[in-house]
Amino acid sequence: MTKIVPEDVRFRVLRVLQDSPDLSQRQIASALGVSLGAVNYCLRALIEKGQVKVRNFQSSSSKIRYAYILTPRGVREKSRLTGAFLARKMAEYEVLKAEIESLEAELAPGKTRGTDAG
Questions:
Q1: Best CA proximity match to 70, nearest among 8, 32, 21, 31
Q2: Between the CA of residue 44 and those of 25, 47, 51, what are the distances in Å?
Q3: Calpha distance 107→41 (Å, rounded)
Q4: How many Cα atoms within 13 Å fall on the side-chain side of residue 34?
Q5: Which helix (H) or strand (E) holds 57?
Q6: What digits encode the pLDDT tens for the residues 45-64?
Q7: 77 burial via Cβ count (<10 Å: 0-12, 13-18, 19+)
Q8: CA-closest candidate to residue 50, choices 27, 69, 74
Q9: Among 8, 12, 36, 116, fewest CB within 10 Å belongs to which?
Q10: What is the residue extent of each domain of the chain?
């Protein structure tokens, strides 16, 4: 399993909130596959940095819920994080691609395999 770096969590939280600001913290955690505590910690930091604002709204079940709205600063941070995330994933892709090519070359016809000695 790949470890998610904190910057990736911030990026993914901002991305989810931009599309669905009315999700609960539990729903965000579930959608991202991270702990509820990680989402809570991340949201607090985003709010403190002025990248997300919290708004109350009345849900259909007559409970007060929160909407997490990206501020202009949050939209800029999401754009910056998108670039960094993409660069990191492209680098990971290149490493994986090279490893796959190396493994395929080892299995190419005419190559002897270590287990063929039988």
A1: 21
A2: 11, 5, 10
A3: 47
A4: 23
A5: strand 52-58
A6: 999 999 999 988 766 565 67
A7: buried
A8: 74
A9: 116
A10: 6-104
**Alpha carbons 13 and 81: distance in angstroms, whole number:** 11
Rounded Cα–Cα distance for residues 50 and 70 (Å): 9
Q: The domain 6-104 is classified under which CATH number: 1.10.730.10, 3.40.50.360, 1.10.10.10, 2.60.40.350?
A: 1.10.10.10
* β partners of residue 53: 69
* Residue 83 token pair: 């670039």
What SS3 state is found at 39?
A: helix
Report in angstroms the alpha-carbon separations of 52 from 9, 44, 69, 91, 92. Answer: 15, 9, 5, 30, 30
**What does the chain come to in residues?**
118
Residue type for position 112:
T
Mean pLDDT value across residues 67-81: 93
Cα distance between residue 45 and residue 102, in whole Å: 43
